[in-house]
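Notebook entry, structure prediction.
Reason for the run: the old model in the group folder had no record of what sequence produced it. Starting over properly, with the input documented here first.
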Amino acid sequence: MLILDFEKSLFELDDKVKELKNLSTKDMNILEEIKRLESKQKKLLKKIYAELKPWEKVLVARHQDRPKTSDYINALIEDFVPLAGDRIFGNDFAITAGIGRFQGLSVAILGHEKGRDTEERIKHNFGMPHPEGYRKACRLMDLADRFQMPLITFIDTAGAYPGVGAEERGQSEAIAKCIARALKFDHPIISVIIGEGGSGGAVALAVANVIAMLEYSVYSVISPEGCASILYRDAAKAEDAANALRLTSQDLLKFKMIDCIIPEPLGGAHRDSDAAVAAVGNYISSSLLSMSNVGNLRKHRTDKFLGFCRNCGE
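New structure, fully documented this time:
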């Protein structure tokens, strides 16, 4: 497991516990010491995560062991059938799209996919979509609208890919059309930010009736590194930028930019993926139920996002 700097004291305790467990467990003194250290470890874990700074939450949100879109699909969606390509240029593996069944209900799924190891990350372009990824998303929305399926999206990207090729193929136009298509979608859209929600690359899949964030996820107009490069002319000041951006789930809920914070297991989703996935599944289930009471879903969604603009103006 990747060890974050602020977690080192935890792993020191963990090493001591493992060392004692390798000794004879029949010794009552050793058993008592193991229990004491485990209790101390749990209290320390709770204290550390209760006092995380914004930059530390960014590091947790980016943790390589956090559940990815593919993990949520595998655990929550039955009979998933992926949709490939935009029918214009090619298939973008940074965005997963497809249809399946959630608790027996036919649904459409969209999500950023970062991958886990180096090979997967290169294949998925580290979760940074090209224009064809957003055009593939529009294709799925067309399909879901035609067959009256709700749309569930999982957000986990540092942002849309900023390369020359992506710009040549119309990156900004593809993102804008994806946002516009979501606003015209006639059925429920539920979005969950499961890790990092960066810039328009995230917003393109987060134009939803309800938006939730996992407790230690982040959501911002720009990455802390990008912000630091612009404001301070120094990417090394990313921690200062993270403090200024107000990118934590608690900040976004306070500003009414999201509807709900989904609690994570103690120590973050990377410590108990199954519990995190189950919590997200429960949220999606309750949200789909609540959306059944909304009359005009398109108007509900449009009013929600126009409200953001009005709030910014104030």
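Summary: The CA atoms of residues 151 and 189 lie 5 Å apart.
The old model has been moved to the deprecated folder.
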